[in-house]
Design goal:
Layout lengths: L12 H16 L4 H12 L4 E2 H8 L3 H14 L2 E6 L2 E8 L3 H33 L5 H26 L2 H9 L1 H8 L8
Helix pairs in contact: 1-2, 2-4, 3-4, 5-6
């Protein structure tokens, strides 16, 4: 078996730390560590990289890199780019952090929110037909479904905004909360 060595040590310390930390964060979000590290490497690298360069830099198996690249392509956080005179595939990452967040949120919504809404709808239908389910239990299911539907609509609205508009909207958060709190005493 070929020994895999890491070239990550050749990168500036801040870049190394970011790549390693992004990998750790990815695992808390349900993303494979290597997938997150490859994303971070491509995000921080100012030129496209091919799979061999990624393998050498991170010191991971080539097959792991290949599978991870496929996953990142499906998230639409990276893309293939041609390099003149080279037949290999090269990759570069989206660098607009707001666009990255929107794309990741879309994947998470499809994986988590959409199935939750489907399940809540099924549970409500079953609850209506089952006399053993109390009115309070039905209310709680409806409340959860309505909340999830509201968040689903909010996501759709935020995803449709251009990145700059979304950044300004999020930046106005404190002012909006202040406006909504007018005339109310702060809770202690």
């Amino acid at each position: 078996m070929t020994e895999i060595t890491k070239d990550i040590d050749k990168l500036p310390e801040a870049v190394q730390r970011f790549i390693l930390h992004w990998g750790d964060m990815g695992t808390t979000w349900g993303v494979n560590r290597t997938v997150a590290q490859i994303h971070a490497l491509l995000f921080m690298t100012e030129r496209p990289l091919n799979a061999e360069e990624i393998t050498e830099t991170l010191g991971v198996a080539r097959s792991n890199v290949s599978n991870s690249l496929k996953e990142l392509l499906s998230f639409k956080t990276i893309r293939r780019v041609p390099v003149a005179g080279d037949r290999r595939d090269y990759y570069t990452a989206e660098t607009d952090v707001w666009e990255i967040a929107k794309r990741i949120a879309a994947v998470r919504k499809a994986r988590e929110v959409d199935p939750a809404l489907e399940t809540l709808t099924d549970c409500l239908q079953a609850a209506e037909a089952d006399g053993r389910v109390t009115d309070e239990q039905r209310k709680r299911l409806r409340d959860m479904q309505q909340f999830t539907q509201t968040m689903d609509r909010w996501h759709a609205q935020m995803a449709a905004l251009p990145s700059g508009t979304l950044a300004r909207l999020v930046g106005m958060g404190d002012r909006i909360v202040g406006l909504l709190s007018l005339g109310r005493k702060p809770k202690e």
